[in-house]
Amino acid sequence: MGLGEIAIVTGSESLFPVDRVPYGCGKVSVGIEHQKLTGPVADVARNLYFTRRAAEDLMHNPKCTEKIKRFATDVANYAHDLEFFTRQLGLGLKMPTGVEPPYLPLDFASLPDPAIVSLLLDRPALPPFHKASLRAMSSFL
Questions:
Q1: pLDDT tens digit string along 84-133?
Q2: Residue 48 and which of 54, 88, 103, 135 are 20 to 30 A apart at CA?
Q3: Strand partners, 105
Q4: What is the pTM of this model?
């Protein structure tokens, strides 16, 4: 019995052409300038932030071995450097940043529809801290 080939999926790009907007909202006429680079930059910044936080949690976990803590330290340092570079790239692209920590770069095309945000702000059952974060989010719109 010989070894066979195994296809491993790496990535999320479609192999077939699709007639739609490649990233962001499907409403082309909403007046938001579509930039192909801002979406991936925002995704990378968010993923690097969560990678760094997870590695820092492993570094301070008393149940982990010293070898795991050492590797987690390396990953945290590497993710921190890449996160800093990505944040600087977002500033260079003049992307908006979040108004609450961790102040990550945002992509306008991935923000919710303003009508949904206004509907959520009108609900009396919403706790006050959620209303404040929704108002901050709607300030970009």
A1: 999 999 999 999 898 888 999 988 777 666 677 666 666 665 555 555 55
A2: 135
A3: 97
A4: 0.60
3-state DSSP call for residue 101?
coil
Rounded to the nearest 5 percent, the helix, strand and coil shares of the chain are 50, 0, 45
Angle in degrees, 0-180, between the axes of helices 128-138 and 114-121, rounded to the nearest 10: 150
CA 71 to chain CA centroid, Å, is 24
- Return the SS3 of 10: coil
The count of other CB atoms within 10 Å of the CB of residue 44 is: 17
132-141 pLDDT tens trace: 555 555 454 4
Residues 6+ apart with CB under 8 A from 47: none
**What pLDDT score was predicted for residue 99?**
86
Question: What distances in angstroms separate CA 42 from CA 13, 39, 67, 131, 140, one per listed residue?
Answer: 18, 5, 32, 24, 15
C-alpha to C-alpha distance for 96 and 16, rounded to whole angstroms? 32
Give all strands (DSSP E) within the chain, no chain letters.
none
The alpha carbon of residue 87 and the mean position of all alpha carbons in its chain are separated, in whole angstroms, by 12
